[in-house]
Amino acid sequence: MSKLIQVLLVEDSLADATLIQEVFDEEKIAVNMEVVRDGYEAMDYLMVRGAHVDAVRPDVIILDLNMPKKDGRQLLHEIKGIPTLKNIPVVILSTSQADEDVAFSYNANANCYVVKPLDLDQLTKTVKSIDQFWFTAVQFPKTDEK
């Protein structure tokens, strides 16, 4: 891999965020991961404002659906409705296996829906599969950054 992949993880569980970062580190997956805890903070990051004036545009967003304040569903709609953000791939990573959550996510233009396993070994496999596809095989759109 020639370039460090910029990942924005939108996850309210500090434990889950830490586990995901540990898997990236242990598997030597070349990412720079920033973590935000809710949809409001994610929008500040994506719009490069507030506490995130030095934010780097992510190559991919990994988004949990169930969060306090502005949840992942609201955030997904907002991201995909903003021309400068809508081409950032959004990977839904949620414990929900509900058909309505999966359908909602794809209807709202999520790029994929991955069920977040509760087991550490399965989580490791899941994060590795995200790496193998999104960080290894996928070509990201070029952006005009400031």
The rounded Rg comes to 14 Å
What is the number of independent domains? 1
Q: Report the end-to-end length measured between terminal Cα atoms.
A: 24 Å
CATH class: Alpha Beta
What low-confidence regions span 5 or more consecutive residues with pLDDT below 50? none
Biggest sheet strand order reads 2-1-3-4-5
String of helices and strands: EHEHEHEHEH
CATH topology: Rossmann fold
- Structural class of the secondary elements? alpha/beta
Percent strand equals 15-25%
Main β sheet profile: 5 strands, parallel
Short recap of the structure:
With 146 residues, the chain is α/β, with parallel strands linked by helices. It has five helices and five strands; from the N terminus they run βαβαβαβαβα. It has a five-stranded parallel beta sheet, with helices on both faces.
Explain this structure to me?
The chain is α/β, with parallel strands linked by helices and 146 residues long. It has a single domain, classed as Response regulator (Rossmann fold). Helix content is 39%, strand content 17%. The protein has five helices and five strands; from the N terminus they run E-H-E-H-E-H-E-H-E-H. The chain has helices at residues 14-26, 39-46, 72-80, 99-107, 120-137; strands at residues 5-10, 31-36, 60-63, 90-94, 112-115. It has a five-stranded parallel β-sheet, sandwiched between helices. Helix 3 (72-80) links the parallel strand 3 (60-63) and strand 4. Helix 1 (14-26) packs across helix 5 (120-137). The longest helix has 18 residues, at 120-137. The chain is globular and about 35 Å long. The two termini are 24 Å apart. The relative contact order is 0.17. The model has no long low-confidence stretch (mean pLDDT 88).
